[in-house]
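User: Here's a structure from my thesis project, written as structure tokens. My advisor, Dr. K., wants to see whether a designed sequence matches the one we expressed. Can you design one independently, without my sequence as a hint?
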């Protein structure tokens, strides 16, 4: 059960204290306070954890300062869709809107290597009219002896270049909670020329300490990758666990499943789950064709498998695309074989537009709203 307070009530107001006192006296339930920062206001919500079956919903709704009570109908209390829940769930970060209706493309380097490559990448992204990119500074690897990224040392010049080209959001994977402070310090020092979406990689979907650390901060949105060897439900539970710590600016990313059944692709492409996640939760859904497909193989129709997989996710309603590009893939330190080249960017975006228009037409025809 979620108790939504009147918008003008802050979490430390006397009315909130009285409501909390009332709820704490209820046997078997623990109230957990969440502050949700929207574009217009900060909303205080109280999540009632435990056995809520005996609670009198009308009595709670009648308390002064309570706007509404939402009965949680699924296991995802924070991120799930609940009957009668009309709150808006999208969010805005550093001037970019993320929700289940729109589409943002994050084309960029798998891993930061040289300043020249970062600059050429950002210039290409800006020229294509995009505002977001991906750039890994901390890289978890299949083989631990492979290059693990330049780490905190590259952050100052990466952020400075992002500012120079008007990039508003960089998706950047973190592998340890200390990386959040490193990113914050570098952003602060650079004067916040850009924003960072913290990415939790597939190897860390169930790293609960990292989930907690990301959930407890509200500065950055989170891109949570699906675990490559666990069920969808287990990955969604990880997202919910993160959000239940307080940060519900979470985007869920499909990146394929690790199994030989997907051969010759690097992972089994799982983009048919885009609408499933939208039905079960309020999270915007990202697709990562690069780490799903993993090669630059081309079909006889002339289209790269990467283009085909992207279109499959977009036509299913994906809200974000994370895609590896590189100015010179042969010299990339990470994942060169799956990178698109800068001269393929315009074609890639045009192909996405075709699929996106088809999706919007399909949605209209079905007469449904997301
Ligand atoms: C990545 O996006 O660079 C990455 C390492 O992805 P994943 O965690 O899905 O393997
Ligand atoms: Mn990669």
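Assistant: Designed independently from the structure alone:
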């Amino acid at each position: 059960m979620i108790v939504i307070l009147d918008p003008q009530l802050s979490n430390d107001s006397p009315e909130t204290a009285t409501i909390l006192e009332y709820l704490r006296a209820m046997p078997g339930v623990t109230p957990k306070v969440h502050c949700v920062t929207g574009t217009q206001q900060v909303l205080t919500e109280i999540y009632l954890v435990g056995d809520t079956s005996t609670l009198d919903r009308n009595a709670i709704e009648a308390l002064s300062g309570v706007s509404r009570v939402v009965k949680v109908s699924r296991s995802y209390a924070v991120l799930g869709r609940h009957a009668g829940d009309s709150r808006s769930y999208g969010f805005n970060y550093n001037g970019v809107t993320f929700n289940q209706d729109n589409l943002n493309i994050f084309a960029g380097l798998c891993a930061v290597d040289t300043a020249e490559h970062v600059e050429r990448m950002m210039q290409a992204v800006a020229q294509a009219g995009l505002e977001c990119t991906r750039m890994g500074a901390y890289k978890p690897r299949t083989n631990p002896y492979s290059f693990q990224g330049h780490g905190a040392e590259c952050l100052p010049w990466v952020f400075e270049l992002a500012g120079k080209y008007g990039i508003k959001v960089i998706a950047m994977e973190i592998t340890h909670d200390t990386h959040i402070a490193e990113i914050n310090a570098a952003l602060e020092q650079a004067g916040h020329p850009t924003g960072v979406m913290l990415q939790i990689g597939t190897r860390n979907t169930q790293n609960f300490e990292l989930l907690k650390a990301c959930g407890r901060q509200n500065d950055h949105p989170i891109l949570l990758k699906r675990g490559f060897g666990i069920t969808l439900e287990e990955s969604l539970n990880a997202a919910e666990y993160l959000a239940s710590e307080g940060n519900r600016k979470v985007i869920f990313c499909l990146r394929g499943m690790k199994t030989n059944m997907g051969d010759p692709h690097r992972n089994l492409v799982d983009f048919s789950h885009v609408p499933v996640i939208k039905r079960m939760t309020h999270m915007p859904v990202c697709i990562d064709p690069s780490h799903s497909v993993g090669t630059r193989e081309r079909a006889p129709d002339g289209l790269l498998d990467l283009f085909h997989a992207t279109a499959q996710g977009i036509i299913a309603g994906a809200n974000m695309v994370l895609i590896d590009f590189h100015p010179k893939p042969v010299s990339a330190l990470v994942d060169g074989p799956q990178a698109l080249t800068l001269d393929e960017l315009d074609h890639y975006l045009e192909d996405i537009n075709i699929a996106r228009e088809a999706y919007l037409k399909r949605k209209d025809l079905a007469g449904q709203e997301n």
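When you compare it with your expressed construct, this may help: The radius of gyration is 21 Å.
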